[in-house]
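Standup notes
- DV: blocked on the single-chain target, sequence here:
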Amino acid sequence: MGFLVRPGWVALTAVVVLFAVACFTLLAPWQFRRNDEKRARNDAVRTSFELPPQPIESMPADGPEWRQVVLTGGYLAEAEVVARLRTVQGEPAFEVLTPMRLASGDAVLVDRGYLRAATGRGAGGRGNQIPDYAAPPQGEVTVVGRLRRDEGTTGGRPPVTDGGRLQVYTIDAATVAQATDISGGLRPGYVPLNAEQPGVLGALPLPQLDAGPHLSYALQWLAFGTMALVGWVLVVRRELTDRAAAGADQHREHG
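- DV (later): unblocked, structure below
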């Protein structure tokens, strides 16, 4: 087995071991986690159809995500922003975010839905521009949507103004509150509107209720890691067999 300490064999062994360790400890677990996340999301969406909408004031700020909620209040059109660089059903889009002041006095970020990008010339040159769209209704309205958690920030990329509209790179209540200076701030999270609600534009589609290929990918990574180790063992056995045969031939020649 002394040949295993030769540079070529050491390199081969290191590559095989590192690949197998990555498969077993990083790649396969990552796909298992993605599968669990998708299943949890799908269960939450299905549950949202079974339970009646609840007043948002009765729901905690951190969830449960996808639960249907009722909001009663007035849109704050002066604090409206647009989320840029979005994708809806595989095509570029913008999402219109309009805070709503509830009857309780709290403010909630409402996602009024998406707009398909229009081609035009903006501040940065030719590219996708925000089309004209309807303003939110005035006065008190009651709307129904689903709770979503903030997407978080995007590496500190600040909001920009283009085409006369304030635009953000991520849907995050704290970011919108800071950019628009809303009195009292915004409740964490946001609420995409259901279809046919007052002020809705293009209602955002719900996610597909399937777990996707993550489980099969996880099993494939486990198989790849196992195959790498088994292949290494077979190569070593073949090397030992060849060396034993070569030694036997030399013994016969000198015998």
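- Follow-up: Helices lie at 7-50, 173-180, 214-254.
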